[in-house]
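ENTRY TYPE: protein
CONTENTS: sequence, structure tokens:
***
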Amino acid sequence: MTNTTTANALDTVPRLLARNAKVYADKAAYREKEYGIWQSWTWAQTFEEIQALALGFLTLGVKAGDHIAIVGRNRPYFYWAMVAAQSVGAVPVPLYKDAVAEEMAYVLDHCSARFVVAEDQEQVDKIIDVMDDLETLDGIIALDPSGMRKYEKSVLFDYRELQQTGRDKKSELQAELDKRLADQGPDTTCVMLYTSGTTGRPKGVVLSSRNIIETAKGTCEFDHLVADDSVLAYLPMAWVGDFIFSIAQAYWSGFCVGCPESQETMQKDLNEVGPTYFFAPPRYFEGLLTSVQIRMEDAGPFKRWLFKTFMENAKDVGPKLLDGKSVGLLKRLKYSLGKLLITGPLKNTLGLSRVRVGYTAGEAIGPELFDFYRSLGINLKQLYGQTEASVFITQQRDGEVRADTVGTPSPGVELRIDDNGEVFYRSSGSFERYYKNPESTKDTKDPEGWVATGDAGFIEKDSGHLRIIDRAKDVGKLKDGSMYAPKFVENKLKFFANILETVVFGNDKDHCVAFINIDLTAVGNWAERNNIAYSSYQELAGHPQVYEMIQANVEEVNASVAEDEMLSGCQITRFLILHKELDADDGELTRTQKVRRNIIADKYADLLGALYDGSNSIFTETEVTYEDGRKGAITATLEIRDAATYDRKKVAA
């Protein structure tokens, strides 16, 4: 049985599961590392686990159209819960596991969830704390019931016991399950995923089986994904990308999904799994590069020389070889030697030695960062998408990979640019609607199916590639009329290992200024090598030598920005180093680590004012949220520095 001959019947995830249980019965579907040991489930075993849970849901009275929330780390059990929910006609709603109780309560209340499948006591406690305010919530299904022996049993169910109940009552309930499976089709709601909420409350994005299956089919064919491929599922299950990679594409192609033991062991587990298909946001690749740079700084002179020598050649040769371009014999031989001594061992250490297709998205990636990974021979490409598109809007084809574009339209996607520069798309993957929010649906998706992305960009006439400038709401003008696009500068700054995050401001102003977060790991390592003592992030961030280092980074970026005719006005004239890291718990970042620019501007209005009024320092007090949810405050006197800027013509000369 092939994809071609069964394509008409494969219109829901449960039907893909049934196909895989027959066609790929003995192939591994899931792997999970627990207590240091890898466990594996075949597609046939996965089918049995999911069906048992689906029957268990029926014993609880789950109805078609009910919402079932899922919260926990990436584990096969939670992917099974999502497909089991689909099997009985319910809608899975994954939550961010690090969300606080109030954030979970909003989503659970908004979607009128009837049940929550939760990982452990930590997640159960958060739900119980808000349960009295959730009128529709009938119970919690716990995977690990440890520590909950005395909890109220009328609302708490054991995941595995529920599966066993489903098995015991299979003869009674199988006909009902079969009927519900048969009633489903392309228009059935497949999943509801909540947006990151950068500007307000998250919105529930309703995605149909057609949205998900058509997207999976087209993109698997685009990158030739097959049953022998594998991925590592480590990104939040509430994020649309994880759903597409770990369920939609995995079930369409039949490849294996590996789940790490924890976030802390993810890098080690990645190395052991050796996936062939890999996705990570720019922040992940920035962190990996930072670790490489730290190791090189700690290495001896000869090793540093070797690294520098072979990496200079690799940056020229590696991308050309990936794109199938010709390379001189001498350079090719040098690249092969570098692969043996430097790039090969480095790829293996990073866990990326087997990656055949790699993607990054979520925000723009700095060209220097992008080129570094491709120079290693990693086929890293960019895609552009959003939750409302079932991820994919554009992708980069092999041989057409560039750092300054996000590629051409994905299969089945149409693009157009509005008069104000905003990017619109239309595709079979376009979401159905925002749940309980017809106004936002109407504002985002027109009657002809065109969806507004909220991003500004343009399509190159010669190549058809899409270039994204910034979020449309963030693009503006400086007082002199020159373009202001903060993300362009922020991505350049974050290439430096010393800088973790930055927020640039300047719309309607004479010049641009910036808040900067140092990378504690990289700068802490530098401090130790230079015998600089510090007791906290705040103390290290305010150290004069750290300011000197960051100022050099800012001025180097200014020189680079000055070369861009359109954006040369975005050079940073003044900056400060924040006394705390931006944090999702403090509302400064989304759960997917995107900067909430307007909230940061409001919260730190005193700092922003000082950057523009000529002050050399400012005292500030900031509210913070501790890990246990308690609130507190920290105070600091922050230094403000001027940075050198450059004339575009002189830099070009």
Summary: The chain has four domains: 3-279, 280-378, 379-473, 476-652. Residues 1-7 have pLDDT under 50 and may be disordered.
